[in-house]
Amino acid sequence: MNDARPTSWLQLANPAVFNRWADRLLWPLVIATLGLFTYGLYGTFFVSPADYQQGNTVRIMYIHVPAAWLALFVYAGMVVSALGTLVFRHPMADVAQKAAAPLGAAFTLVCLITGSIWGKPTWGTWWQWDARMTSVLVLLLIYLGIMALWRAVDDPLRAARAVAILTLVGAVNLPIIKFSVDWWYTLHQPASVFRLDGPTIHPSMLKPLLIMALGYLALYLVLLLVRMKTELTLRRIDRLQRLAAGIPGERA
Amino acid sequence: MSAWTALLLRDLRLARRVGAGAELGLVFFLILVSLLPFAIGADQRFISRIAPAFLWLSALLATLLGLDRLLQADEEEGVVDQFLLSGTPLELLVLAKALAHWLVTGLPLSLAAPLLGLMLAIEPQAMAPLALSLLVGTPALTLIGLIGAALTVSLKRGGLLLSVLVLPLTVPTLIFGATLVKEAALGRPYTTPLMLLGGMTLLMLVIAPVSAAAALRHARQ
Fold it and tell me: Which of A129, B81, B109, B189 is the most exposed place for a label (fewest CB within 10 A)?
């Protein structure tokens, strides 16, 4: 690994180098997260206006919509990591994939739960088989499958490659699932739903929304780096334990 | 192509001899259909309404049967190593395995479905479309299952995990298939769902062998 060409991308494959970079980035990102959330939540509760139809209920949008964006963004990041695993065999891509999956699932779950809480006062029901909610639910199921595959395969190298293939297959399928669910929904559109597709969003609401989205993104990066560092430490402990147990073929 | 044909015939023979043949899958399908009235009551009109969806769900479950051993037995016995040594592309060989699986699950289900549709009081004009939808759609289910089988090939108890991995990916196939039958039952044209269903199968025909072969190769490095 040490004879790799000295480009920064490949140097990051060294856990020590990665840890150094991660430590350097971590605190600025934590501060950015806190700042953006403080500013964003202030905007959510005090600056942005109440909706003329939904009143204060609309404020849950600032929690809900960025979570939905992140749910997709994390998956896109996992696709990039999966390519890094399969094409470049980059060890950090494996670690990033593993660290990202539960975070993506968590954002998807936040999106579903806040959507449900938003749905109760506006649609009058906790759950509606609406096209978007259904697609997000399927996305959550795919995330859970990926997490289950990570847990099932012992060897981290094999697990990373299997998960990478599953992630790529999922990436091809996600747009088709989205299309098919939309198509299904237009065929069976229930009459009772109060649709929310009003006019385009007003700037006074867009600004807090974008700040909250940036806050979510910074939070995601913080959690991702921490989880990657934890995973690296766990792997090191595992390797040292094997070494201490005298399992042949293990190097420190 | 002789290795390919030999593998196909071997899998078909194996299926017949070890009790995973077409007839047992059909019995499973029949049991599912007979359980339905016990669960929801004998109201013929209600059964008739949910029958297309139910038959498609049953086909989905019947396809899952045996998937966890589809590649695992070969992996354990070293047959996959022989695949890799044979010089025939692994992609084609796993396709032969999928075809053999479909010939003993999907195909008999498609042919038997109108009969079971009769028991579930499906509209007469929807009988042929029901068989057609399963004939066109179940290959996609088997192929998606092939990916899951390859990903879980080294796991001792991969059956449940396989279902969790595979079932979310079958959503489009299920939607198009069940919609096709429902539209036909209402006497409406069903060309659009039929073409989308065929598209799913063709797409999976490309994706599944490549992904499954990649998964098998990576599992042994």
Answer: B189
